[in-house]
Amino acid sequence: MTYRFSADISSKEYMSWLSKQPNYNITQTPMWANVKCNWKSTLCLLYADDIPVAGALLLIRKFAPGLKMIYSPRGFIIDYSDEEAVKRFTEGVVAYAKKIGACMIRIDPEIVLSTYHDNTVLIEQGGKYQMSVIQNLGFKHMGFDKDFHTYTQPRYNAEISLTDPSGDPLSDESLAKSFDKKIRKFIGRYADTRGIFFEYDIGENAVKNFCNISQHTEERQHIVLRNEAYFKRINDAFGSDNVYFLQKSILLNLLLFLKSKYLPESAKPQIWQKMIWKRLKGLDLNAVI
């Protein structure tokens, strides 16, 4: 089998291959390169007998005079069980790094080492083997720290399959059963009785609403999140594929629930009114927040 590595692939050719892969992260798309506007980038593919078998978005950044690094977020897109393909693709990326003067290549591939569901941990032997393949090529594993700030991308990912093993969409009932028991109790009646409902939106107005919520989160949690300019770039890059889901509450329904749930029938109306009115004074009780 003859392998050939190519960089500077066109977005059209790259997406034609990437869209056919069983799973990939949006951070490996050409659109993501537009979001990371402070990085340069290139798209690359590995061909086996002129058929593409692996690829990656490589982000390039100068971090010191004369020094550059390459970062492939959630890359590479490759079958890590195929030792020869992984070796050839890595060699191609290393050669490209030397060509542009990069001294570091960083990846955080989506290799599953274990899964956790219903208080049960399952070790993925296939994942352990795939890790050994890339480590044997010189990649250094950063360990298993749980600190969120240790890694560029989070180690843990929550995933729920929307289809059954045959690829058919799951029903709402089957989908709900796939959630952990602790999560299932928050679906359905829990939300209805509290006046909670969900909507989705797209476009600049959705970005603005989402960023307003993020600002409140920053103030409450004393943290710093992405700014509005960042989410605008995402919106520009992905267009109508960028969807925001928002939880909203009907205040009157929520207040009636709190009254019935947490105050005895004998309690005077003035008690719960004063308790809640301190927070909601001046708001329209028929409003949606």
How would you describe what is shown here?
α8 packs antiparallel against α9. The model has no long low-confidence stretch (mean pLDDT 87). The strands form 3 sheets. The chain has a 5-stranded mixed sheet with strand order 1-2-3-4-5. Strands 6-7 form a two-stranded antiparallel sheet. Strands 8-9 form a two-stranded antiparallel ribbon. By secondary structure, the protein is an alpha+beta fold. The protein has 2 domains: 3-150, 3-Layer(aba) Sandwich (Aminopeptidase), CATH 3.40.630; 172-280, no CATH class. The protein has 11 helices and 9 strands.
The total count of helices amounts to 11
Specify the structural class: alpha+beta
Written as H for each helix and E for each strand, in order along the chain, the element string is EHHEEEHEEEHHHHEHHEHH
Round the mean pLDDT to the nearest integer and report it. 87
List descriptors:
single chain; 289 residues; alpha+beta; Aminopeptidase; 2 domains; five-stranded mixed sheet; two-stranded antiparallel sheet; 11 helices; globular
What's the SSE blueprint?
Blueprint: E1 3-6, H1 11-18, H2 30-35, E2 40-48, E3 51-64, E4 67-72, H3 83-100, E5 102-107, E6 114-117, E7 120-123, H4 125-135, H5 172-177, H6 181-184, H7 189-193, E8 196-201, H8 204-221, H9 228-238, E9 244-249, H10 251-262, H11 269-280
Parallel strand pairs: 4-5
Antiparallel strand pairs: 1-2, 2-3, 3-4, 6-7, 8-9
Helix pairs in contact: 8-9
